[in-house]
Amino acid sequence: MWKASKDRVRRWWSGRSPGCIVWRLERRIRQWRQRYTRPILKKLWQWLEQQKDACPESSALGKAIAYTLKRRVMLSRFLKDGALPLNNNRAERAIRPVAMGRSLYTSF
Fold it and tell me: What is d(CA 74, CA 87) in angstroms, rounded to the nearest whole number?
């Protein structure tokens, strides 16, 4: 069984560089995002446009909707680049100790 799968892997790798394989994976990720996520985002933008008209701009919800709609291009950028994550949780976790330390150090 191992020999059969080993031969299959060898055939798959033959003539392919690791860089080529990575680019193929990235292309598939982009295709998946284009196929499944883009229609959902399109509906979200339409819904936000409808809510913007129905909600006063001075309310907290109106401000949040306006903020999101102003940044539509930036929030949709992950669709074109498969390497971009959907959120920045990793960066937020990385800077949390700095922010927490800064607030703690001022109390001493």
Answer: 12
Q: At what angle do helices 38-54 and 60-70 cross, to 10 degrees?
A: 140
Give the predicted TM-score (pTM) of the model: 0.59
Which residue type does 62 have? Answer: G
Q: Residue 100: how many CA atoms within 13 Å on its side-chain side?
A: 6
pLDDT digits 0-9 by tens, 49-90: 999 989 898 999 999 999 999 999 988 888 887 777 777 788
Measured CA to CA, the distance from residue 29 to residue 42 in angstroms comes to 19
What does the domain layout of the chain look like in residue ranges? 2-105
Coil, strand or helix at 87: coil
| Distance in angstroms (rounded) separating the CA atoms of residues 98 and 108 | 16
Only one residue has tokens 């446009």, namely 49
Residue among 24, 37, 40, 45 nearest 79 (CA): 37
